[in-house]
């Protein structure tokens, strides 16, 4: 039965991507506000598919306690789910994608209009300059910036490998970085096959304020993300959902 549900889920996901592209086309000639509206409609459609075809409920934790103004969300990357959710739950989101996503027909036009950032991971220093230039523009507009600091989706049992771009953003923009832990890889891993039904959790952790050196920043961020992600991954293994963590007052 799960194999059948997985097929139906993938078909629904694909179908909505096509329909979402049509919504995007209608929004493109209009204002950026209409494009932001299309962004939320696109995300909302995927939420519907996840819930009713995939049997996945979504638990977004501590998103009501995010910093004011612009900030950087550094999220563990395990599936396509998190790339969808941020665009629906946040306002005027600026996301950092791999360059290949920016080459998808129609969708790429929408991403560019929305000021999303396509990162060529093989371009070396020029990629970092490109990232910082567009990220600064987004920060000046008080937009939240979402980046996956590992650079690609990784299986839940893979070793953590974090790229240096996140520290470049942190140092240059002087904005707080909010680590985000997830358990999405237990449900929809990189191969796109629905592994099981249940509750997908994305949890914002304590912000890391500007001013730390590279070693201290990376250690704090990686420890926060990996520790809490490993706890969340136990959700569907022991049958008891992990308790929410309240952000500290410090």
Question: What are the defining features of this structure?
Answer:
single chain, 250 residues, alpha/beta, Glycerol-3-phosphate (1)-acyltransferase, seven-stranded mixed β-sheet, globular, disordered C terminus
Task: Chart the SSEs and their pairings.
Elements: H1 2-27, H2 32-52, E1 56-61, E2 72-75, H3 81-89, E3 94-98, H4 107-113, E4 117-119, H5 125-140, E5 145-147, H6 165-173, E6 177-182, E7 198-204, H7 214-232, H8 235-238
Parallel strand pairs: 1-7, 2-5, 2-6, 3-4, 3-5
Antiparallel strand pairs: 6-7
Helix pairs in contact: 1-2, 2-3, 5-6
User: Compute the gyration radius: what is it?
Assistant: 18 Å
Q: Compute the separation of the termini in Å.
A: 48 Å
Task: Provide the spatial order of strands within the biggest beta sheet.
Answer: 1-7-6-2-5-3-4
Q: Note poorly predicted spans.
A: 246-250
Shape: globular
Percent range for β-strand residues: 5-15%
Count structural domains.
1
Count of alpha/pi helices: 8
- Largest beta sheet, briefly? 7 strands, mixed
CATH architecture: 3-Layer(aba) Sandwich
Task: State mean pLDDT (0 to 100 scale).
Answer: 85
Helical coverage, percent range = 40-55%
What is the name of the CATH topology?
Glycerol-3-phosphate (1)-acyltransferase
Protein structure class = alpha/beta
Give the tally of β-strands.
7
Can you tell me about this structure?
- The chain is an alpha/beta fold and 250 residues long.
- It has one domain (56-238): Glycerol-3-phosphate (1)-acyltransferase, CATH 3.40.1130.
- 44% of the residues lie in helices and 14% in strands.
- The protein has 8 helices and 7 strands.
- A 7-stranded mixed beta sheet has the order 1-7-6-2-5-3-4, sandwiched between helices.
- Helix 4 links the parallel strand 3 and strand 4 (117-119).
- Helix 2 crosses helix 3.
- The longest helix is centred in the first third of the chain and has 26 residues, at 2-27.
- It is globular, with a radius of gyration of 18 Å.
- The N and C termini lie far apart (48 Å).
- Mean pLDDT is 85; it is low at 246-250.
């Amino acid at each position: 039965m799960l194999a059948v549900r997985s097929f139906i889920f993938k078909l629904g996901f694909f179908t909505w991507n096509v329909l979402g592209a049509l919504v995007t086309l209608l929004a493109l000639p209009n204002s950026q506000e209409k494009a932001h509206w299309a962004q939320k409609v696109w995300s909302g459609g995927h939420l519907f598919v996840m819930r009713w075809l995939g049997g996945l409920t979504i638990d977004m934790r501590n998103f009501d306690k995010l910093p004011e103004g612009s900030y950087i969300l550094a999220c563990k990357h395990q599936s396509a789910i998190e790339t969808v959710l941020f665009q629906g739950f946040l306002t005027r989101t600026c996301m950092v994608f791999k360059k290949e996503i920016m080459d998808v027909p129609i969708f790429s036009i929408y991403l560019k209009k929305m000021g999303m950032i396509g990162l060529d991971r093989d371009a070396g220093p020029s990629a970092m300059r490109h990232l910082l230039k567009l990220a600064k523009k987004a920060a000046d507009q008080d937009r939240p910036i979402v980046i996956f600091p590992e650079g690609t989706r990784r299986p839940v049992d893979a070793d953590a490998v974090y790229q240096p771009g996140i520290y470049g953003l942190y140092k240059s923009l002087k904005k707080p970085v909010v680590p985000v832990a997830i358990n999405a890889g237990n449900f929809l891993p990189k191969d796109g096959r629905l592994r099981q039904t249940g509750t997908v959790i994305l949890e914002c952790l304590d912000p890391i304020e500007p001013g730390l050196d590279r070693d201290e920043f990376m250690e704090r961020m990686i420890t926060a993300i990996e520790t809490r992600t490993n706890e969340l991954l136990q959700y569907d293994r022991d049958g008891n959902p992990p308790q929410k963590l309240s952000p500290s007052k410090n």
